[in-house]
User: Which sequence fits this backbone?
């Protein structure tokens, strides 16, 4: 039975702990088979949580709650299954506490954005930045996105969080332009954002309020995010493309896209995942993947940005392969707004020295 969204429940009678692997692996194998949609073959995966009655749970409500806790344990470990254990409840209480605190953090401006430069290979000048959200937690210190974005998705907070990131990043983009720096601003979207049919209208409002041109906003979406909700996702991306927003497939090469499906997406850019870029200097297979991706993207009329560029050798190889743009520690680490402004003034990668513009 479907519980809602992308969650389903299977009730199995007369199941003991020894029989769990057989049943779980059969379910996962069935869900691992590709299905066909609009003449495309789409690969899926699932995370499975298992709980037992009456040895672990007293009633149906507790049985579902414990299975849900185990499912998120499996999700954090990647695809597969997990059997409920009492110590997982402590983790769940920790997550519930963070979810509640995150809701307050969005309202109290405890979040902040770090910006990582993106450098053009042809001009060897910075042409944009990617905005990366951090949570300055009053007790736990700075939390990276992977520590709270999944919680935001589970708690239904991804919409308010995305709105905060967009509004803050666009405000910073305007501040940089007033100093004479005309840069694109890249922002990541979650898979859950592609369920929100109001997202394009919300972005249009923020663009109008800030005065930022749509093409200067780059929205990054992973392959898996698009495939998690292909029909709504495609409709949302099509509307954003109609608005003139630049769309980028993030972490390309790690997801589900077939070449035929990629051709049908209204995207402008591919970002090569850092797992290929970081090892390509010494790993011939990774170098072949990077070269093939660049050639593929250019043949489809797409720009290519490489992530994870940490050495001069990697920068040079990407340039020789025709990569358009790169980001990584070699050019600049993610930094808060005030350090970004100093970096733009002082870095050899910076634009031609800016001429400050008067505020409108």
Assistant:
């Amino acid at each position: 039975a479907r519980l809602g969204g992308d969650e389903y429940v299977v009730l199995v009678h007369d199941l003991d702990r020894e029989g769990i692997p057989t049943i779980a692996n059969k379910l996962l194998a069935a869900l691992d088979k590709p299905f066909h949609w609009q003449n495309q073959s789409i690969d899926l995966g699932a995370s499975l949580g298992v709980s037992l009655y009456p040895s672990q749970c007293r009633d149906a409500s507790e049985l579902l709650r414990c299975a849900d806790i185990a499912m998120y344990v499996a999700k954090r470990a990647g695809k597969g299954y997990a059997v409920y254990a009492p110590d997982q409840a402590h983790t769940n209480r920790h997550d519930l506490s963070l979810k509640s605190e995150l809701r307050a953090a969005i309202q109290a401006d405890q979040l902040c954005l770090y910006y990582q430069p993106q450098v053009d290979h042809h001009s060897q000048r910075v042409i944009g930045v990617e905005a990366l959200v951090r949570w300055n937690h009053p007790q736990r210190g700075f939390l990276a996105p992977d520590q709270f974005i999944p919680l935001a998705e589970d708690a239904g907070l991804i919409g308010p969080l995305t709105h905060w990131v967009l509004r803050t990043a666009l405000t910073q983009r305007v501040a940089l332009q007033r100093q004479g720096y005309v840069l694109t601003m890249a922002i990541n979207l979650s898979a859950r954002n592609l369920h929100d049919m109001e997202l394009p209208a919300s972005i249009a409002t923020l663009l109008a309020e800030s005065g930022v041109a749509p093409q200067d906003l780059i929205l990054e979406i992973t392959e898996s995010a698009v495939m998690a909700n292909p029909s709504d996702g495609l409709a949302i991306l099509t509307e954003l493309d109609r608005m003139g927003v630049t769309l980028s497939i993030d972490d390309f090469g790690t997801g589900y896209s077939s070449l035929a499906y990629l051709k049908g997406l209204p995207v402008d850019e591919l970002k090569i995942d850092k797992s290929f870029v970081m090892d390509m200097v010494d790993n011939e297979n990774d170098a072949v993947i990077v070269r093939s991706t660049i050639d593929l993207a250019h043949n489809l009329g797409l720009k290519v940005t490489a992530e994870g560029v940490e050495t001069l050798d990697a920068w040079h190889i990407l340039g020789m392969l025709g990569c358009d743009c790169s980001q990584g520690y070699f050019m600049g680490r993610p930094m808060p707004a005030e350090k970004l402004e100093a970096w733009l003034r002082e870095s050899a990668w910076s634009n031609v020295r800016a001429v400050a513009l008067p505020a409108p």
